[in-house]
Amino acid sequence: MTQIVLQYVLVVLLVVGIAYFVYLIRDKGLNISEDYFGIARTLLDFLGSSDDITANGKSVLRAISEAVNYVEVNYRDEDNRIKEEKAVILAKEAIETFNFENSIPEENLRQLIRLCAVFMPPTNKQDS
């Protein structure tokens, strides 16, 4: 009998925990269905309160994507670590033109660069 009561209590605590987690996400102004790969969360962390995530988020992702595309096209034969460093430099320069209150942390920038690189078409096709 005590095991059944204990199981019900644990289920209730689990439901309360999930509800609290959803409350915390909504409190930050983040829509769960729009947070693909945690990108919106990453952008929320560095954009200030006066910076609009919906208006500037796409611009930031486009700037990073253009930097990654430029590096992939022009440094095709380089090592991936070197290409990532060049993309970080170019992306930082592109993001600085937006004049945000805060700057994006380098680790978050690297994650976004890696995501942009993943979504690009393959450039090193091997002959079969």
TrEMBL record:
Keywords: Membrane, Transmembrane, Transmembrane helix
Residues that span the membrane, as ranges: 6-25
Domain of life: Bacteria
This protein's name: Phage holin
Organism: Clostridium brassicae
Classification lineage: Bacteria, Bacillati, Bacillota, Clostridia, Eubacteriales
